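Can you give me the bound-state structure? Components:
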Amino acid sequence: MNIDMIRAAAHRIQGHARVTPMLTSPFLDEIAGRRVLVKAECLQHTGSFKFRGGWSAVSAMEEATRKRGVIAFSSGNHAQGVAAAATAHGAPSVIIMPTNAPKLKIDNTRALGAEVVLYDRTGGESREEVGDKIANERGLTLIRPYDEPQVIAGQGTVGLEIATQAAELGVTSGDVIACCGGGGLTAGIALALEAEAPNMRARPAEPEGFDDTARSLATGSIQRNATETGSICDAIITPQPGDLTFPILQRLVGPGFVVSEDEVLQAMSLAFKRLKIVAEPGGACALAAALFHGDKIEGDAVVAVCTGGNVDASVFADALKRFP
Amino acid sequence: MNIDMIRAAAHRIQGHARVTPMLTSPFLDEIAGRRVLVKAECLQHTGSFKFRGGWSAVSAMEEATRKRGVIAFSSGNHAQGVAAAATAHGAPSVIIMPTNAPKLKIDNTRALGAEVVLYDRTGGESREEVGDKIANERGLTLIRPYDEPQVIAGQGTVGLEIATQAAELGVTSGDVIACCGGGGLTAGIALALEAEAPNMRARPAEPEGFDDTARSLATGSIQRNATETGSICDAIITPQPGDLTFPILQRLVGPGFVVSEDEVLQAMSLAFKRLKIVAEPGGACALAAALFHGDKIEGDAVVAVCTGGNVDASVFADALKRFP
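Here's the bound-state model for the whole set.
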């Protein structure tokens, strides 16, 4: 895993993924007490940065392998990213989703061209068993959501864009906060910044109760979450940092932020009001950290990555109502 | 009023206004029955394209005149655009607003550096009297919202960007729909397209009951709206097309679209769900036309300008609830 892989991914992605804008608002600067630059990755195709990793992985495959197809396990953003990237390459994709996944996400994944295979989480079936059987029968290649070099490389292209866009706004040092699940995005950004903006440092943001990465960084060894359910930040809840991502995080990133559910909802409302973008709860953790945890940040500017916008209308409306 | 003024405005604006992204979604394409490209001008500074016109006008002034300051009449987006542009140039700005304007808009305009002068709409005071008195006393220059060449030139920079961005996506012909009030944006885009994308054509979109531009184009002479109140699309309600803008519209643009309130709210909800952007009602008219009036559009692609995102949380939440 190195910067050359990220640069190669950037080359493959060019013209396919969007160069998402870096947004700012004097009103957010005032809340944070410093300049806040928001990388609006919710405006990416399929509504999250996951499209980059999906495209990077699918485009890196050999043609004959790709033609047989890809498979992924996901109930959310990774599913849509892989499905869209595979379809655009003319490759079949199978996404294994739980039967109780939101209908909209199942419908979207199908509409993006994937074959969705449902498994019953409560029925004793393991999704790995379901997936392995199909993958072996059809010769499909598994695309993991974060512990996969070409996926990390794709997510790292966010970091390359941040280095360029922040410099255009006069910012060449400071923290770059990323909403963090398994660490693919955070690790990719960290590697990109190491090469392109050595005075900038990636830092992960996670919701309270699901701060496996922050604790792993603090203790120096991989820590697990006690549970994987019960967070509104569903998109970034993973059991623990990845085996590939954690060593990169350990070497390069600063301490993790842990934000509350109320801070996340308030950040969503402020992103609506001040930036005119839609952030999902898991995608608003970094902005919440930038706005409400300024005491743990140094310097006169901070970058926050708004990682996704795939949120149900009712959840979004509730956030606006609670924090008008 | 000509293309050279727009190009000069683009030069002055560069690095100050954002080059807003052109967004797409396969789900919107399916609804429209053709490719839909959305120019997300709600992501502009101050939340609407009005920042461009404000910047263009303020930056075109002679230094001595600018130093004395500028004045504008507006309860909304033009106020914020002019205030932000003036402050960035170190020039004082006075915005005349009605006492019953939304508190948030008054607060925002003040926070952007303007002196807000309130006048009582019901108390017999004419805003022109209030404004003229202050302007004469202090030597302020009036910046009109649309019947002002340098404002039209600034709004026209949206058209230059559309020509470039659409071509990058392979679109060089078809309709470019703009939400239309006094016609400054539509006229500016029309002039830009005439020069840079001669096979593309601007068309205005307005809400039902406030279709002065559509009727003026159809009859060949300036028509007035019966009333100026009672529309959710408050940002684009004007008495009639401008004296400067109408001749440009008449020469260059196609027939106007007239959209219903329900179509506007549904377009706002779809922009939320599929593009992850916040559109205000007046800013969603063009997208509503592109999605729901396809029978009046030719060709396999259409561009819709989402002109602004300054909408109250309660109005936005209602749109999501009504059209989930």
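A couple of observations. Chain B has two domains: 3-49+148-322, 51-142. The beta strands of chain B are 22-23, 35-40, 70-73, 93-98, 115-119, 141-142, 174-179, 200-207, 257-259, 301-306.
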